[in-house]
Amino acid sequence: MVYRVELNPDASPEAAYGARLRQFREARGWTQEQLADQGAYTGKHISAVETARKSPTLGFSRDVDAALGTADTADSFEREWREIRQGSLIEGFPEYVTHEARAAEIRLYEVGVIPGLLQTPEYAAAIQGGEVKRGACTPEQAEERVALVAQRQEVLVRHRPPLVFVVLDESCIRRPVGTAAVWDAQLARLTAFAELPNSAVHVAPFTMGERRACTLPVTVLTLPDRTLMSYAESSQRGHLEKESRYALPMLTAYHQLQTESLSQAASLDMIDQVRKGTP
After folding, report:
1. Of 87, 104, 137, which marks where a domain is finished?
2. Is residue 124 part of a domain?
3. Which of 101, 157, 215, 220 could join 107 in a cystine, given CB atoms 3.0 to 4.6 angstroms apart?
4. For every one of its 279 residues, what pLDDT tens digit does the chain have, with 9 covering 90 and above?
5. Residues 219/107, Cβ–Cβ less than 8 Å
């Protein structure tokens, strides 16, 4: 007699996903091995997802949708995966990402880390690896966040990409992340990004002192209809301001910050010096 694990879909979002996967599989009269044969997974992997011992991934969810015919339907497992993934992200950020993808202009100011839109996959993986070591997220959540970085960067290569203005606090380029090779490739990525016709990169040096208009990371989006949105985060949540009249002061502060920052030529000079290990 085959031992059957009882599922509790109320235990967690992953448990609900697994219970629904079993329901759909059994409705077709398939064993776990038969479902696994439809994709690049084993019966043990299917079992682990159904019992919530393993979290589903984007690739897994897409394969399941293809096998069960649920792609682009209300029953889509990819859709459920995205809802689970959003639960692991800071509050307010998933909504921000939807607007970022259609923005006409993006203005970024970051402190301490390279912004996601400019991260190499290896840099993003190193950042998330640190989160896993600290217990701030699971390996599966880290993998999903790295995948989200790549997904967000699709906006940079779309037809008619946005204008992207980036101001980096000097700490962003002074704080090495990952191996020496990972860090060097990330700095090279900044240089290559600055050379694009629709981008600008500036460094806000430590010496700016009281002339620094922004002290915390901020993003200002200009949408195709020219309305403004701003986004800022605390340690626990993000706030998306969708009214232009409230986002406008943030845009003003951003322009003041950009004006006081190093020119792009001087900024790239500093980045090059960091790559060479010179002060």
Report:
1. 87
2. no
3. 220
4. 455 778 888 777 788 888 999 999 999 999 999 998 888 789 999 999 998 888 888 888 889 999 999 988 888 888 788 767 665 566 667 778 889 999 999 999 999 999 999 999 999 999 999 999 998 888 888 888 898 899 899 999 999 999 999 999 999 999 999 999 999 999 999 999 999 999 999 999 999 989 888 888 999 999 999 999 999 876 567 788 889 999 999 999 999 999 999 999 999 999 999 999 876
5. yes
Q: Would you call 243 helix, strand, or coil by DSSP?
A: coil
Please give the C-alpha separations between residue 47 and each of 35, 42, 183, in angstroms, as whole numbers. Answer: 10, 9, 39
Q: Is the pTM above the cut of 0.90?
A: no
Structure-block tokens of residue 177: 């992340």
Which string of b and e fits 259-270 if b means at least 16 CB within 10 Å? ebbbebeebbeb
Q: Residue 28: what are its φ and ψ, rounded to 5°?
A: -95, 0
Classify burial at 12, counting beta carbons within 10 Å of its beta carbon; exposed 0-12, middle 13-18, buried 19 or more: middle
> What is the C-alpha to C-alpha distance for residues 162 and 150, in angstroms, rounded to an integer?
16
Tell me the three state secondary structure of residue 164. strand
CA-CA distances (angstroms) from residue 159 to 102, 104, 180, 198, 221? Answer: 11, 11, 34, 12, 18
Which pair of structure tokens corresponds to residue 61?
Answer: 């969810």
Q: Which domain holds residue 259?
A: 93-118+153-276
The length of the chain in residues reads 279
- DSSP state letters, 217-253: -EEEEE-TTS-EEEEEE-SSBEEEE--HHHHHHHHHH
Q: Please give the tally of structural domains in the chain.
A: 2
* DSSP code of residue 89: S
Of 220, 213, 202, 248, nearest to 162 (Cα)? 220
